[in-house]
Amino acid sequence: MEDLIRFLKERVQGELPHSDIRKEGLSPGLLQLLLEEEQNARKQFQARPPRICAVMIAFYPEGEHLYLPMMLRPVKSRAHPGQISFPGGKQEETDNDLVETAIREMKEEVGVEVPSQNIIGKLSQVYIPPSNSLVTPVLGFLNEKPSYDPDPNEVDRVLDVAMHSLTDPANQKTKKVILTNGDFFEMPAFAVQDVLIWGGTARMIMEMNKLLGEM
Question: Which of 86, 135, 145, 171 has the fewest Cβ atoms nearer than 10 Å?
Fold first, then answer.
């Protein structure tokens, strides 16, 4: 794990694979939609600024493999109900930066604190149109499998997702999303355990996979 941490700390200082959304390899329809949504969000920044958010991607070793804590949001959740996500949420005024946001949100949502010295860096920001959120993924690590104390208002259950299951091509799927006007597009997704990970979370995983592929 030490070699991985050393590599990632150096790598995230350079240009990231998804610093330009056009490099994500998204389907043409989805790419056009996301570009239009981002452009509209910039035009409306004064009247409707996006929610500035951060999520924590914190891996830990167990046996010969690395795992990531992820969470299933309750179906009654205000944000992305019933979906799989990394722990995270909106930046608060008391947060000095988005790293603090990610650390605080992980502690509040799943009861796990990532020490500040275990922060590796950040991935590319992801704009999520349905919640008008601009999300910064923060990379970190834990030295061992954590004990969880999830907030039932925010978390239905915590999943320990093996990193190798996310890099396995057999688990890389697509999800068909239909818009209100009848248009549809294919969105990248990952089928692991008994769930489907898609949306902005899947896009973050895609960038992480590209970084891991460079080792």
Answer: 145
C-beta contacts of 87-93 below 8 A and 24+ residues apart: 87/55, 87/56, 87/112, 88/53, 88/54, 88/55, 88/56, 88/135, 89/53, 89/54, 89/55, 90/51, 90/52, 90/53, 90/133, 91/52, 91/53, 91/54
Rounded CA-CA distance 70/58 in Å is 9
Task: Give the pLDDT score at 176.
Answer: 86
Domains defined along the chain, listed by start: 2-160+201-213 (3.90.79.10)
- The per-residue pLDDT for 45 is 67
**121 CB burial (10 A radius; 0-12, 13-18, 19+):** middle
Facing residues of 47 across strands? none
Rounded Cα gap, residues 35 and 102, in angstroms:
26
Asked if 177 contacts 187 with a C-beta cutoff of 8 angstroms, the reply is: yes
Yes or no: say if 89 and 109 are a contact pair by the CB < 8 Å rule: yes
Over the range 147-176, which residues count as b (16 or more CB within 10 Å of their CB) and which as e?
Answer: eeebeeebbbebbebbbebbeeeebbbebe
Listed as ranges, residues in the chain with pLDDT below 50 are none
pLDDT of residue 46: 66
Give the pLDDT of residue 27: 87
pTM for this model (two decimals) = 0.92
